Amino acid sequence: MTGRLLARTTQAAAVLASTSAAVASMNALSMPGLRRPTRPVTERISICIPARNEVGTLPALIDDLTQQQLCTDLKVVVLDDDSTDGTTAAANAAAAGDPRIRVVTSDAPPPPGWTGKAAACAELARLADEDDVNASVIVFVDADVRLEPGAVAAAVRMLRRRGDGLLCPWPEQRAGSAVERLVQPLLAWSWMSTLPVPVANALPLPSMAVACGQFMAFDKAAYRAIGGHSCVAGSATEDLDLARALRRRGFSTSVASAAGLIRCRMYDSAADLRSGYSRWLWSVFGGPAGSTAAALTLSAIYLVPPVAALTSTGSTRRLGVAGYLAGTVSRMAARRRESGSRFGLGDVIDAALHPLSILAFVSLVAESHLRMQRGSLSWKSRPMPVPQS
After folding, report:
1. How far apart are CA 72 and CA 245, in angstroms?
2. Cα separation, 381 vs 293, whole angstroms
3. Cα–Cα distances in angstroms (integers) from residue 125 to residues 44, 119, 137, in the given order
4. CA end-to-end span of the chain
5. Which residue has the higher pLDDT, 388 or 278?
6. Who's near 153: CB < 8 A, 6+ residues apart?
7. pLDDT at site 386
8. What is the pLDDT of residue 388?
9. HEC states along 339-375?
10. Burial class (CB in 10 A: 0-12, 13-18, 19+), 100
11. For 248-259, what is the mean pLDDT?
12. How many angstroms separate the CA atoms of 303 and 281, rounded?
């Protein structure tokens, strides 16, 4: 890269990184968040948990659900989706005979064209209707999620207060390994640094929807109106596509911070993280051309400034420092809103390594496209549906 081109790229990158830092900082101050409830929720609530080989995570979630407070009519259905690790036995032991909790085992494969999770969630919705057809709220929770005692009541109260068809309280993303710490914070950062959340929540545009499949609270009538998970049967990003489907039908959807009430550790190894992200990143940017453009843009905004700061002089170096610091600030602001009072020095260090996070993300996007082209997309030992051209 010539000196003039580097200077111009660094200048543009510094402006864009500063804009993202401003958006993330605004969201840190104005994004809605769950509030611990003080009054009981009397609506009938169905909690649905898809579980495939979750013997190490599911019992803790079931225990959390048995301790939920201020929900006077709560029923839970767990679907063991053809597990091979004793998930059903662990679920029954954790439920300990609680009459509100039903554990069902299925060995049926997903129908052709369906992802395993979408098929499991559709079956869960059917089972929830069997238990209580008159429930007015249906909540899907992943097995690796952890809930504080007031989490469900807080989510339902916000769902009703906002009048949404879908509320996604964004869980704090916990990370253990170095690779997790590089990549997981990017989930929240990706939208908190680009979308003013109060505006995105208020506008009905499907393109501005934000969703998280780890915890999705639906108005049941709205969920039924779009056909439930059948409308996203083969989607690699079923959570986001459900939110978009609702918006296209005239329902509102919202995302809110669940800091202090809901948390999740999605992956517990680098191998699981690579497998998890590569199964869906190919679909995010509209194809190989879009992914290439996104990778080049992210690299220009967040990799060029630190390079300029280290290798250039004068105004280019100063702009490089400014762009690098702006990227760091955007990461810290997003993480601060996501983690709440748990934000600490480790999060600052992670944010300072943001350029490495971008490199990791770009490599995961490339791997996802490569696996898609080879037809080797899979999750939890099941092949993902092949995209139809």
Report:
1. 31
2. 31
3. 14, 10, 11
4. 37
5. 278
6. 37, 40, 41, 68, 69, 70, 71
7. 65
8. 57
9. HHHHCCHHHHHHHHCHHHHHHHHHHHHHHHHHHHHHC
10. middle
11. 97
12. 20
